[in-house]
User: Which sequence fits this backbone?
């Protein structure tokens, strides 16, 4: 089985044992990556949500085999653009240069989009303004786009529709929307990224069940979006053949265990199990189909050893 996690926030300090600025245990990223490989994860896209984070994602991808990066500005980070030395033009010029200097490792522009659930971090005007600048990056580099969309009342779809000619492939990651939103996104030729947050409720499950398999891509969005016992999807894991690694609270960490409530790439197997159950497809069959889709979207022009 070969799986690619298209959304992992591996630059988060929790993967180095640091929580809210305090060290709770030693750096266990190598063990996390080892667990992912044991689960069949052959590739991981490390998400870049700002200029600095994108550079860090690239560096991480050079330190560990099978890792790649995205480069962009998350909507909730839009306000930092104006505070960059030289302003917005310099910020996006540096992002463009980062991409050009690392075409062997950067496989998408993003994470970019709109998020109206967290306007306390960046208002609508800034989000929309700097979302548009990232279509320029996609147009200039030919890279696919990695999108974020939360509670935008149709603004996200409108912006995509107006700029659809400027990029090729794209995925709306961590999708939690309605059947109507699915239809709009599929009509725009986009793919849908599914993780634990996409599978919380019975309504979520019905939506994912209706998405064509050839438009689905899997992710964890770790360290967030794990499948929890309270989620509607949890009941579909009872017959899962893959055994979830033991987890412990961070205060009781040991080298063989996951940290409780800290999602990680190996848990994409649980997402796979739920989606396979919903579509009535064997996990191995679904994994193979989604693997081919993922390679076609993100790795068509990138050398890899998957």
Assistant:
């Amino acid at each position: 089985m070969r799986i690619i996690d298209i959304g992992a926030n591996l630059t988060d300090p929790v993967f180095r044992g640091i929580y809210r600025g305090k060290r709770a245990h030693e750096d266990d990223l190598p063990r996390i990556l080892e667990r992912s490989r044991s689960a069949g994860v052959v590739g991981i896209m490390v998400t870049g949500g700002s200029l600095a984070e994108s550079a860090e994602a690239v560096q991480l991808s050079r330190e560990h085999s099978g890792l790649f990066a995205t480069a962009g500005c998350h909507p909730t980070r839009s306000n930092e653009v104006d505070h960059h030395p030289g302003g917005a033009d310099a910020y996006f010029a540096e992002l463009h240069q980062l991409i050009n200097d690392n075409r062997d490792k950067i496989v998408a522009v993003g994470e970019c989009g709109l998020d109206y659930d967290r306007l306390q971090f960046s208002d609508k005007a800034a989000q929309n303004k700097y979302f548009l600048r990232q279509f320029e990056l996609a147009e200039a580099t030919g890279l696919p786009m990695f999108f974020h969309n939360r509670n935008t009342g149709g603004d996200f779809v409108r912006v995509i529709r107006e700029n659809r000619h400027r990029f090729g492939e794209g995925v709306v990651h961590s999708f939690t929307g309605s059947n109507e939103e699915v239809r709009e996104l599929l009509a725009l030729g986009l793919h849908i990224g599914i993780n634990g947050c996409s599978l919380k409720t019975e309504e979520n499950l019905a939506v994912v069940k209706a998405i064509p398999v050839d438009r689905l891509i899997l992710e964890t969005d770790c360290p967030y979006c794990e499948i929890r016992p309270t989620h509607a999807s949890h009941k579909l894991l009872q017959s899962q053949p893959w055994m979830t690694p033991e987890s412990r609270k961070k205060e009781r960490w040991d080298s063989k265990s996951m940290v409780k409530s800290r999602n990680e790439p190996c848990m994409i197997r649980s997402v796979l199990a739920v989606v396979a159950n919903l579509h009535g497809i064997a996990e191995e069959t679904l994994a193979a189909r989604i693997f081919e889709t993922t390679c076609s979207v993100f790795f068509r022009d990138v050398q890899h050893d998957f």
